[in-house]
Amino acid sequence: MSHPLHVETTRIDDITPFLAHVDPRDPLLFVRRGDGIAGIGEALRLEFRGEARMREAAEAWRGIAAAATVVDEVRLAGTGLVAFGSFAFADESDDVSVLIVPRVVVGRCAGVDWITRVDGADVGERTSLGAEVHVEFAEPAFTAAAYAGAVHDAVAAIESGELSKVVLARPLDAALPDDADLRRVARDLAFAYPDTYTFAVDGLIGSSPETLIRSESGELSARVLAGSMGRGIDAASDAANALELATSQKDLDEHAFALSSILLSLERHAIEVTTAERPFTLRLPNVWHLATDVRGRLADGASALDLIDSLHPTAAVAGTPTPAALAVIARLEPFDRGRYAGPVGWVGADGDGEWAIALRCAQVTRAADGADGRVRAYAGAGIVAESVASREVAETTMKFMPMADALG
Description:
27% of the residues lie in helices and 35% in strands. The protein is of the alpha+beta class.
């Protein structure tokens, strides 16, 4: 960074639609239920790798925020100086983790619209969304049959006592036309899944139902999801599926592992932590989930980046115990997850922020020479002792639906 940032947030009458302002090839976006923020351009980009990537990001961000001059007349979540971020799942991943401060941020919260300019940058012209994006996904070498074999191996590892739960994922690949307008993909995701976080950060795009952590004025909240079942074909079968999920010991056990890992990680940072006694069934357009909301108060002044460093990876995306689960993932998944299942979200100058787990997503890689790029979608399932390989394949197929639908 050549100089401290000067940041100014002002209220405006209306900034919608957000997507008309952002880069069609590489949008910056984090929205839910019509509220959120979108970024234009890059005033600052920070990159991190390795085991300390989130700790290094937290430290770097404290320095940037302390040096910045911030004038914020709105003072809502997402105003003032903010950075969008996306972090790799694994310590040894080849994918870079990023914090990006846009030149301009447009946002909406609780009916209030605003614009944030860094060093006086201009918002630029609105542009119409391009044509719908259509791609043809195909299985890589790690096919559905190979994934089923990995599930069998994972169950064997669980039965031998190596671990209690592991989350295994598989990818689908497709070519992406160079002129593909990713704003169209983000719009379709946000419309189809309004109760999830629709995000686009450095080519990672998706709609996640899982809140890793939200920090605002000392209040913390998270939403734990683990245990899934498809929606029914009519009202009766849909209700039966929800009831089956709510009473499934296999899914309740899987959920308990995920909740326990969140609570344990929050112990060092939070007080007055509360949860419900039993999970509730969360209805999404294509799936039922077991869900538990967690709330607490921040006790040690940790920033949102400090919190994601403590929380990641949760049992919901890795397994239990975590070190054993990560070893099994490395052994059974013959690919780099990249930033799939890592934290994605934003952080403000005061350390507050909102972070989801990057699920129901795809990573876009653009070709440097104008040729077609690449898009890789991911889906995973929690494996416990009672898991059946065919059902886990079906669950991952179901979880590919949001990206498969949005991409054609």
